[in-house]
Amino acid sequence: MANPNNLAKSHVAAFVFTGGSSSRFGSNKALFEIDGMPMIEWVAVHIGAAADCDPIFVGARDNAKFSHSGVLIGKREGSGPLGALCDALDSVTAEFVLVAPCDTPYFSAESFARLLAQMDQFAAVVAVDSKKQENAHWLLSCWNADACRRHLCDLFDTGERAIHRAVAGLDVHFEPFDERELRNINSPNDLA
């Protein structure tokens, strides 16, 4: 089983965020099967291949059956995406932190690799819809841990909860992708 502490020597750490109640989906969407595999597993396979490590599931109390990977329940558990990102950044000494939500099964390993490929130039690289550049997918992203950790966590500690506001002052690059790859599966209708 991967352990967040084992990532200390790694160049890249990968995290799959599993928070949220799946209220629009009607059941635990992370466990919903697509082509014979749970959605969360598709995300784990893709992000793990790009990062060359086993991903850690953040906030995965209900998804603990994926015991081949580690589970991180951080001090900001239940405080939204920025809290999950801060917990991930705080848990490792890896240079880069690659993250994804559990409901983006169509974002490929090659796409995660594209995010990583930009990291020598920016504090963060965030996936964005190529046709609607204003649609940033803040949780399909890669973060330079040293450049972002204190900035984001300090803002979180002062009460900020929105990633798009917390990144003010950081050098963020928006990498365009086809909208089909960026699909969040929030309800069964999103699979159509």
Helical fraction equals 25-40%
How much of the residues is beta strand, in percent? 15-25%
SSE order, one letter for each helix or strand = EEEHEEHEHEEHHE
What oligomeric state do the depicted chains represent? single chain
Shape: globular
Strand order of the largest sheet: 5-4-1-6-8-7-9
CATH architectural arrangement: Alpha-Beta Complex
What is the count of helical runs? 5
CATH class, anyone? Alpha Beta
Q: Which structural class should the secondary elements be placed in?
A: alpha/beta
Could you characterize the architecture of this molecule?
The protein is α/β, with parallel strands linked by helices and 192 residues long. The chain has one domain: Spore Coat Polysaccharide Biosynthesis Protein SpsA, Chain A, CATH 3.90.550.10. Helices cover 26% and strands 22% of the residues. The chain has five helices and nine strands; from the N terminus they run βββαββαβαββααβ. The strands form two sheets. Strands 5-4-1-6-8-7-9 form a seven-stranded mixed beta sheet, sandwiched between helices. A hairpin with a 6-residue loop joins strand 7 and strand 8. Helix 1 packs across helix 3 and helix 2 crosses helix 4. It starts with 11 loop residues before the first strand and ends in a 15-residue tail after the last strand. The N terminus is likely disordered.
List the helices and strands and how they pair.
Elements (H helix, E strand, L loop, with lengths): L11 E6 L15 E2 L2 E2 H13 L4 E3 L12 E2 L7 H11 L5 E6 L7 H9 L6 E6 L6 E9 H13 L5 H4 L5 E6 L15
Parallel strand pairs: 1-4, 1-6, 4-5, 7-9
Antiparallel strand pairs: 2-3, 6-8, 7-8
Helix pairs in contact: 1-3, 2-4
